[in-house]
Amino acid sequence: MNAVTVKDVYENALLPHQLHAQLSEREGQLLTNEITALLSDSYCIDDTTLKFISPFYTLSDYKTLNLVRNSRGRCAYPLCDKFLNGGSVTAEFSGSMLGFCSGLHYDCNNYILNQLSDDPPIYLRERIHMVSRFDFANMRKQTYQVELFEDYLKKKATEYDMDTINIELDKFRMSY
Ligand SMILES: [Zn+2]
After folding, report:
1. Which is more confident, 64 or 174?
2. From 1.10.1040.10, 2.115.10.20, 1.25.40.820, 1.10.443.10, which CATH number describes the 6-174 domain?
């Protein structure tokens, strides 16, 4: 399957839910499940796509996405196109280093997990699914949208030298 784009998410997951601004609990879950299905055997084509889907994930649903990807033998990080050397990873080890192609993607994924919450649930995140909200030409940060570890590293790289970045990384790793 081709890499998942913002347009894919828009057409497959959001477009069916444009009739009302308030999702039902079931619709909210359907929407998230649809994105998870897209990413179960594929990956986000770019960081914009990963940021774009993040408001549609609670912490629990994102962990499910990680697990589904691992069960297919894929690196749990949704922005990664790599398969795991050891084949599929079960629920027991999903979320551990075994579920990732590299330490970097383990960190990237934890950086996202740290920003997600189960509260509020998707259906109470008012209007997040309404496409009229999106400015596709200028993807500004949306409510509930996560920041990526890659961006954090880029920002740090312009502020500090590599030694400082490594110290910061160690501090970050100890925080989870
Ligand atoms: Zn990876």
Report:
1. 64
2. 1.25.40.820
Residue 135 CA to ligand 1 centre (angstroms): 29
Place of tokens 């649903």: 61
**pLDDT attached to residue 1:** 67
Of 133-142, 143-152, 166-175, which gets the smallest average pLDDT?
Answer: 133-142
Cα(86) to centroid(ligand 1), Å: 13
CA angle in degrees (0–180, nearest 5) for 124-66-153: 90
**Predicted confidence band of residue 134 (pLDDT cuts 50, 70, 90):** low
Q: How many angstroms separate the alpha carbon of residue 127 from the centre of ligand 1?
A: 32
Structure-block tokens of residue 8: 């894919």
CB 43 within 8 A of CB 101: no
For residue 87, the CA-to-ligand 1 centroid distance in Å is 13
CA of 163 to the centre of ligand 1 (A): 24
Domain range summary for the chain, segments of one domain joined by +: 6-174
